[in-house]
């Protein structure tokens, strides 16, 4: 999943991608990228308000909390990404990014403050004292750019975007395409039986990937 912590659609996509990965018992790999405006691209005010209202509509439809927004643009994004490798080193990058995304999209937590970030970090199962020492690390800029290029190489242009094998799609509302690709791959294999979470039917599962 190509993901931006500032993108509310990424937040909805992350909630749904986690559910999909858990349903099929496959790993979810997050590849964060910088938000558009932090890459020199502009977003008109009219588009910002459209995104807010559209995301609220989608969130309500999906029963996902949304609306108490604390925009992490700038320092909030940088602090988020500075701690991503720490979270990943402990195998908690999904919990960390989900905690962060919920905080800034649904709980009004100011991630640019130490008090706000401490809440995000600790509920993700990370140590605040350790995290504080990593906030000035700038190495994340390198992998964020690698992720952006990888996203473009997949023929994708924005977040959230998803790739499973050779199948790609853009937008949280297109995640069903990935679900179909996973199902087809499982059904095409005959090495192990698993339960299809979409209809409780018995299917077969072989090599799994994301």
Report the β-strand fraction as a percent range: 5-15%
Tell me the number of helical segments per DSSP (H or I, 4 or more residues long): 9
User: For this structure, what is the CATH homologous superfamily?
Assistant: Glutaredoxin
Distance from first to last alpha carbon: 9 Å
Taking the sheet with the most strands, its summary is: 2 strands, parallel
CATH fold descriptor: Glutaredoxin
Task: Strand order, main sheet: write it out.
Answer: 1-2
Total separate domains? 1
As residue ranges, the low-confidence spans are 200-210
Helix content: 40-55%
Structural class: mainly alpha
Shape: globular
- Mean of the pLDDT scores? 90
Provide structural commentary.
This protein is mainly α and 210 residues long. The chain has one domain: 3-Layer(aba) Sandwich (Glutaredoxin), CATH 3.40.30. The strands form three sheets. It has a two-stranded parallel ribbon. The chain has a two-stranded antiparallel ribbon with strand order 3-4. β3 and β4 form a beta hairpin. α1 runs antiparallel to α5 and α5 packs across α6. The C terminus is likely disordered.
Give the helix/strand layout.
Elements: E1 2-3, H1 8-24, E2 31-32, H2 45-62, H3 75-82, H4 84-89, H5 93-106, H6 114-123, H7 128-132, H8 140-153, E3 161-164, E4 167-170, H9 175-188, E5 193-195, E6 202-204
Parallel strand pairs: 1-2
Antiparallel strand pairs: 3-4, 5-6
